[in-house]
Each structure stands twice: as structure tokens, then as C-alpha cells.
């Protein structure tokens, strides 16, 4: 055989021997490190690793699981719309400003509650606060179908001033429900 081939084999053998030596040293170092950890710490690490790998496999669900989950969410949404009377027809969100300390987003939301249509525009300022995020509503603008009623007009103006969306939705739900009852009653007498 050729001397060059023998040299190539010799070089390969030396490289493998060096790799075995390095792996042996690494193994011995790992053995020494593992003696520093208690059995309890090792079990915690194993359980943590298992949770992480289970989370990764959940991310790769089958399409039938995703369809079932979507159907479940649609059923929940239908129930909530029936319960509250709110049917949202559109929503758009635009990020106006984003820094490490705060995020400002402009939202536009439209829909109806029972038979009353509404449209909202507002800015949402989100600021991280320790482990929570605080949100402040500003520049609230409400457009409603039934503004001819002076009480509704006053209520909408007050809500726009205070930027209180929760009060708006609660009050609108109650008002729209009774508005429907009044409308049906007056239709009955016509």
C-alpha cells in the first residue's frame, strides 16, 4: 500500500484518540459536577425539563385538535355574545409608540349591543409596573346611533371625559336591553 494512505489512517487514528481523550475529560468533569447537586435538585431539573418538552410538543398539535379548539372558542364566543348582547363587527389596532417603558396603541372598535350601534376610538397607554402592566385609556371618542336621547348624550360625554370603558359597556348593556323592551312595548301599542 501507499505510504500516503498509511499516513492518512495514522492521522485519523490520532484525531480519534484525541477526541476520546477530550470526551473522557468532559465526562469526568460532569461526574464531579453532578456530585455537587443533591438528588432533590436533580429531580427538580428533570421535572422542569419534562415540562419544557411537553410544552414544545403542545405547540405542534394536530389540525384536528386545533379545529376542535377553534370550535370550542367559537361556541364560547357565541355564548358570551348571547349573554351580554354585544356583537363586535370590527376592531383595528395600530401601535403609535413603543418604547421599553411604554406602549401607546390606537384602537377603533365598532359593533352593536342588542339593536344599538356604537363605534369607539381610543388610545391605550400600557406601562409595565413591576410584574403587572397598567393600562390607561385616553382620547376616547364614542359615536352612538341613539344620541337623540339627552340622557344618553350626557352619559356619552361624561364617559368620553373620564375614559371609563368598563362603565360604558356595563351601562350600554343595561340601557340597550331596556331600550329593546321599550321599543317592543311601543310597537305593541301602535
Describe what this molecule looks like in 3D:
- It is a single chain.
- The chain is an alpha+beta fold and 190 residues long.
- The protein has two domains: 1-50; 85-189, no CATH class.
- Helices cover 60% and strands 27% of the residues.
- It has helices at residues 3-36, 39-58, 63-84, 150-162, 165-189, and strands at 86-98, 103-113, 116-129, 132-144.
- The protein has a four-stranded antiparallel sheet with strand order 1-2-3-4.
- Strand 3 and strand 4 form a beta hairpin.
The major beta sheet can be summarized as: 4 strands, antiparallel
Inertia-based shape: elongated
Whole-angstrom Rg: 32 Å
Low-confidence stretches: none
**Estimated structural class:** alpha+beta
Helix share, percent: 55-70%
Number of E-state strands: 4
**What is the overall pLDDT average?**
81
Number of helices, where a helix is a run of at least 4 consecutive DSSP H or I residues: 5
The spatial strand order of the largest sheet comes to 1-2-3-4
Distance between the termini: 113 Å
Question: Roughly what fraction of the amino acids lie in strands?
Answer: 25-35%
Write the layout of secondary structure elements.
Layout: H1 3-36, H2 39-58, H3 63-84, E1 86-98, E2 103-113, E3 116-129, E4 132-144, H4 150-162, H5 165-189
Antiparallel strand pairs: 1-2, 2-3, 3-4
InterPro entries: CENP-P (IPR027801)
GO cellular component, one term: nucleus
Pfam families: CENP-P
Write out key terms for the chains shown.
2 domains, 4 strands, 190 residues, alpha+beta, four-stranded antiparallel β-sheet
Amino acid at each position: 500500500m501507499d505510504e500516503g494512505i498509511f499516513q492518512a489512517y495514522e492521522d485519523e487514528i490520532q484525531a480519534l484518540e484525541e477526541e476520546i481523550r477530550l470526551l473522557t475529560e468532559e465526562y469526568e468533569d460532569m461526574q464531579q459536577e453532578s456530585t455537587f447537586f443533591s438528588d432533590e435538585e436533580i429531580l427538580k431539573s428533570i421535572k422542569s425539563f419534562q415540562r419544557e418538552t411537553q410544552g414544545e410538543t403542545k405547540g405542534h398539535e394536530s389540525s384536528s385538535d386545533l379545529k376542535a379548539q377553534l370550535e370550542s372558542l367559537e361556541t364560547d364566543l357565541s355564548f358570551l355574545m348571547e349573554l351580554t348582547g354585544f356583537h363586535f363587527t370590527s376592531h383595528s389596532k395600530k401601535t403609535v409608540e413603543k418604547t421599553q417603558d411604554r406602549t401607546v396603541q390606537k384602537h377603533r372598535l365598532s359593533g352593536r349591543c342588542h339593536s344599538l350601534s356604537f363605534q369607539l376610538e381610543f388610545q391605550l397607554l400600557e406601562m409595565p409596573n413591576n410584574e403587572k402592566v397598567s393600562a390607561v385609556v385616553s382620547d376616547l371618542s364614542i359615536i352612538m346611533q341613539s344620541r337623540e336621547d339627552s340622557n344618553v348624550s350626557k352619559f356619552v360625554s361624561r364617559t368620553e371625559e373620564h375614559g371609563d370603558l368598563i362603565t360604558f359597556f356595563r351601562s350600554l348593556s343595561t340601557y340597550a336591553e331596556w331600550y329593546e323592551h321599550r321599543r317592543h312595548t311601543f310597537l305593541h301599542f301602535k
